[in-house]
Amino acid sequence: MMTFQNLTLQRGPLRLLENASVSLHSGWKVGLTGANGAGKSSLFKLLLGQLTPEGGELQMSGYDRIAHMQQEITDLTLPALDYVMEGHEQLTRVEAELKAAEAAGDDQRLAELHGEYDLLHGYSKKAEAEQLLAGLGFAEDTFKNPVNSFSGGWRIRLNLARTLFMPSDLLLLDEPTNHLDLDATLWLEAWLRAYPGTLLLISHDRDFLDRVVTHLLHLEHRQLNLYKGGYSDFEKQRAERLAQQQSMFEKQQREVAHMEDFIRRFKAKATKAKQAQSRIKALERMEKIAPAHVDSPFHFSFPEASKSSDPLLVMREADLGYAQNPVLRNVGFTLHPDQRIGLLGPNGAGKSTLIKSLVGDLPLVSGQRVAGEHLYIGYFAQHQLEALDTQATPLLHLQRLSPKESEQSLRNFLGGFGFQGDEALSQVGRFSGGEKARLALAIIAWQKPNLLLLDEPTNHLDLEMRHALTLALQEFAGAVLVVSHDRHLLKNTVDDFWLVADGQVQEFDGDLDGYAAWLKERQSGQKRDEKEDKKSGQPQANSVNKKQDRKEAARLREALKPLRKQVDQLEKAMDKARQELEVTETALADSALYTDAARKDELQALLKAQGNQQQALEDLEMQWLEASETLEQQTAELGL
């Protein structure tokens, strides 16, 4: 049991909690959420005994063993596997004493220590540590590599593995998915669900919270508010509570009205395809939880590019990667302005390589990259955060791009990304990772791209900023291609998935649950093939068959491309027809048109145009309906 009783907590001049009370039961899995600076990390320090409250008390019972992920690695010379295993201090002590007893020839002490080692299940611990490393994406041949041979992100994964290896009654994790890909996130999710102790988790990944935690503890207005369920349950419950507060009512209604309007506009042009229908449902869910975010400091959009090309970008028979070792082979596709694609695939399969090649940062090994005349790419990747000018301010970054733009206009724009008041004049060198990521996104948005290439855009972003980014991407008029371990972002912003695996890029006929199943089947299939290969020394026929099946599926999807293109073109034609009709009907709304005799000819011309435009729109809608139904029917017949 963990009880906070009338707790007051302060860091410097900032009061984080004031007379806050809440009780958490043993075995609960609790997610901590709240604005940056609300006190989530300070609450962890309090539990670890690193902070003392100014008032009230904290009572903890049954938590003799607390595991907490360190942010720094102190010993960089140990092999990775040894570093993880050293997290089990009792096991490390017994192993050291066993060596000493063997050297001293102390048989009695050896017998005692072997008994203690057996109680700790010491003989299976190495395999357990190896499973943790494999689950977090480490290749087996790297287990013995020294820690200092790994990059910063992989060292953080090592720290996570070490923390999970520690025996604990209470596990404290602060942003554990920040440097994980989707595969490792899915593995960690399953591991934490099976964890028998009490878990306190700080995370900005809402789907991860939904699937792991049983309760949500929200730090707001210096209080601790406990909600039952995951993050989605919290949103609904908080939305209901805020709806009852008169001071928030008008702002809430504006937010809901905006969402309803966007849903109406999206439905008007959505096809009957499965992905489009699921996106409509996702948008309707977004509408319901909109009130829970009315006090968010982030409200921005990606302005529409002044010009665009169709296609935006074409890849033809391209090998991508490096001359001696291409990562992807024979890549070919066309990107159109309205495509919204999520990239899936195992770690190291080539997702980032594909994006770098599309940007032009990585030259093709062979093949063609053909850019449209009016292609404007907005590229986000983690390394760009470090490329920001640390001596400059957010305002100066935009002024360099648009020196003639007024300062107030630039500051208004930056305000939507959370840089309000003096924050727009702060030096970037003082920024956190989240603030740098927000600025990088603001710079991209300001330049009005028509193709967004996003490589893990939500790393370092808090939940409110992720929510705002999701809304902005939903309304973005251009094409989107994104790699992300944030499943909520993917589910709510992309219509199709591409699978990057085994040196190939192909359409993935399924959703994120389907990908999780594919990944599980792939991993178990690899294990079976390895066992069979060891027995027979021959590759398995079923793997060849699966490869042929994938090629056949790709061929069938290719056959449907002309029909899909026809549906897309009809949608664009309907959009144009609706816009023309809207202009005519706006003109007809002028009351003077009906009373001024001199404008009779103008009125008749407008009425005739209205009739012609309505008929043209009806014809297009009928063609679109027939084409959509044909596409659905052929897709079903081909089993795609």
What's the topology here?
Layout (H helix, E strand, L loop, with lengths): L1 E10 L2 E11 L4 E6 L5 H8 L7 E6 L5 E3 L11 H6 L3 H16 L2 H13 L2 H14 L16 H14 L4 E5 L7 H13 L3 E5 L3 H7 L2 E6 L2 E6 L2 H13 L2 H24 L4 H16 L23 E10 L2 E11 L4 E5 L6 H9 L6 E6 L5 E4 L2 H4 L7 H8 L5 H9 L17 H14 L4 E5 L7 H13 L3 E5 L3 H7 L2 E6 L2 E5 L3 H25 L4 H19 L1 H28 L3 H4 L4 H38 L3
Parallel strand pairs: 3-7, 3-8, 5-6, 6-7, 12-16, 12-17, 14-15, 15-16
Antiparallel strand pairs: 1-2, 1-4, 8-9, 10-11, 10-13, 17-18
Helix pairs in contact: 3-4, 5-6, 10-11, 14-15, 17-18, 21-23
Describe the model.
This protein is of the alpha/beta class and 640 residues long. Among the domains are: 47 residues; 196 residues, Rossmann fold, CATH 3.40.50.300; 78 residues. It contains 23 helices and 18 strands. The strands form four sheets. It has a six-stranded mixed sheet. Strands 14-15-16-12-17-18 form a six-stranded mixed sheet. The longest helix has 38 residues. About 1% of the residues have low confidence.
